[in-house]
Amino acid sequence: MPSRQKNVLAAKWNVNGNAIGAPDLTLSDNQVFGSNVFSQAIQRQRLPKDVYRKLSRTLAKGEALDTSLADSVALAMKEWAMEKGATHYAHVFQPLTNVTAEKHDSFYGPTGEGTALAEFSGRELIQAEPDASSFPSGGLRTTFEARGYTAWDPTSPAFILENPNGALLCIPTAFVSWTGEALDNKIPLLRSMDALSKSAMRALRLFGNESAVRIFTSVGPEQEYFLIDEQYYFERPDLYTTGRTLFGAKPPKGQELDDHYFGSIPERVLAYMLDCEKELAKVGVPIKTRHNEVAPSQYEVAPIYENSNVGSDHQQLTMQILQNVARRYGLVCLLHEKPFAGINGSGKHNNWSMGTDEGENLMEPGDTPHENLQFLFFCAAVIQAVNKHQGLLRASVAGAGQDHRLGANEAPPAIISIFLGSELEKVFQAIERGEVGESTPESFLGLGTPVLPPLPMHGGDRNRTSPFAFTGNKFEFRALGSSQSLSLPNTVLNTIIAEAVDYLSEELEDALETGTELEAALRPILQRSYAANKQVVFSGDGYSEEWTTEAENRGLLNLHTTADALPYLISDDTETVFSNYGVLSQRELESRYEVMLEQYVMTLNIEAETASSMAKTMLLPAAARYKTLLLSAELGDLAGQTDALISQLVTKIKALETANLSENQPKGDIQKAAEYTRDTVIPAMNAVREVGDKLEAVVADDLWPLPKYSEILFVK
Ligand code: ADP
Ligand code: MG
Question: How confident is the model at residue 68 (pLDDT cuts 50, 70, 90)?
Fold first, then answer.
């Protein structure tokens, strides 16, 4: 009887040597950081002075690009890249999936005389035409009008990606249809950054700031991931086709011991992390922290924050490099939101803030009462925006993998609420009661006692259960999934906050016009805004059942699944705010809604078919063999038990196959298809799993065809 060979891990790595294909780890960090980036320093060295000056202005002030610069930039970029060994260049872009796409072109073109010359002019830098028809567009593009263009984004630096057999110049680009509609995630993010900059500048002027010219939003993502042995990955069709285990009984040793979190990192894993950090450093991603996470084999990595556009591009690179480098160590990096049932899933914390081009962080409480008025104003805008657009925020993080986390028994909850921290909450409560000045905690705001330095907020209270928390000088949106692009959630945040800032600015302008002093004008505005939106502020345990009830009483949304959340992408409030700020047109919004629903349905269909095929061709035969074995050993009772489970499995597989039949699925209405998947396909798949996991617990270990959780989850 053939059985699975266990524990023969390919020795691709050993503690003393380097992994196969590992880069040189002897360079110091200083030499490495940004060495493969066409950075400002490189540009200064290599570009004609006037070109460099104009380009820098574009970058610093967010001005429109003067296209006559392109030829000079292209020439310098090409020479630099070829000196570094690049033979090809690629326009990289983010289609409406969470991944990055790229099309490679050679620097060489035929000259007609049998030789080849490196070719890369301003035209090739600025624009390319990938075959647009193969990317999802949600109806923005029918195949006969499949033209789409990638357009150079000079605000996100070009870089070189090394490969053991060559190097590739990567040029961050936007992806747009020939009619000018955004086919990607970058364009709306850039538009939203512009929108918020305009609104926040208008507000800043009211606070007397005459020198700043532009506001940048910033993002610092904390990325969670699992690392498992490559061998186990390839032994499990569920892992390599869907990224998560569709079967697997609870291991005897799970995360209940909590010994993994902040524990020491296994040496092989640490070597992997160092290697990743080195690779990320080369392409200019400023990685800052790493540690173990709560679940076994789960880890986290976080960069220093950057402006939202660059930070979002760098996050895509981080996910790519985490996955690529793992293979050098015989490991696979899982970015799925829920690879293992019963074990914590993986998320991504999106730290968000905004600041001026002069370096002032608008989300940081200041040292003077005046600065604090400004801080409270922007804070009130965030609270108002999050309350008004809860459903949209929830929709911006929706996806099949996320349904195992949000609204299931796991962090964070699907109800969007804000944690302000006790000091800031007290300040707003005092404002609401009209008591500013007397009961405001002086330690925090410095109001009244300017001689005392304000207490740093960072060391203060924390609430790990809140999906949206103020953490001292930024807000942390914690509901993103580990595999998600940062673009949509940040596009949403920037846009809804721009709307709230304008709303409050208008009120403030009206009050100031009547000659009222700034502070006196602002107080009633903050008071009204907080009173109207404080229902979204919550500092208790977000995982508790009481919160679900209380949130319902407060009228907050609780959108459990992707199918429930996505309609908020096309709600009236969403369409209004996105079109008012020119971030996404109604058609562009509808396309995103459709693509996200399609992906949800498609992902679950693949999962369901994989589950039914594994159950039929792997689990069922193993159980049947085991039954034969029991019968031949004359263990009739045990054979009977196994037989009962086998019949259940057969029934459940049939039901799943029926649910999967395409003639049983609603056609023509993608929302209905998503609801059918949620209500019929998922339960059928879960039922098969339930029996499969029971069989795993009884079938002889050497007959069981899949590596078990207890093997997979503990990297040795
Ligand atoms: P914690 O979540 O425990 O506060 P850190 O202090 O390490 O962890 O910060 C988490 C992330 O927040 C980091 O990626 C960091 O770069 C980011 N961050 C810090 N300040 C800002 C900011 N002003 N804007 C956006 N992200 C920020
Ligand atoms: Mg965090």
Answer: confident
- Report the separation in Å between the CA atom of 350 and the middle of ligand 1, taken as the mean of its atom positions: 9
Residue 530 reports pLDDT greater than 90: yes
Q: Is the pTM of this model over 0.90?
A: yes
Task: Return the structure tokens found at 484.
Answer: 């998600």
Closest-CA residue to 397 (of 493, 301, 534) = 493
Distance CA 463, CA 471 (A): 9
Instruction: Match 């602002």 to its residue by tokens.
Output: 522
Q: Residue 300 above 50 pLDDT?
A: yes
Ligand in closest contact with the CA of 349:
2
List Cβ neighbours of 192 (8 Å cut-off, separation of 6 or more): 217, 490, 491, 492, 493, 494, 495, 498, 581, 583
Which residues, 6+ apart, have CB-to-CB distance to 485 below 8 Å? Answer: 94, 98, 99, 185, 312, 315, 316
- Can you say whether residue 472 is alpha, beta or left, with left for phi > 0 and alpha for psi between -120 and 50 degrees? left
* Residue 658 pLDDT: 97
Q: Find out whether the beta carbon of 364 lies less than 6 Å from any atom of ligand 1.
A: no
Q: How far away, in angstroms, is 464 Cα from ligand 1 center? A: 15
Task: Give the atom of ligand 1 at the shortest distance from the alpha carbon of 364.
Answer: 23
Mean pLDDT of all residues in 190-214: 96
304 C-beta closer than 6 A to ligand 1: yes
Q: Is 351 in the pocket of ligand 1 (CB under 6 A)?
A: yes
443 lines ligand 1 (CB under 6 A): no
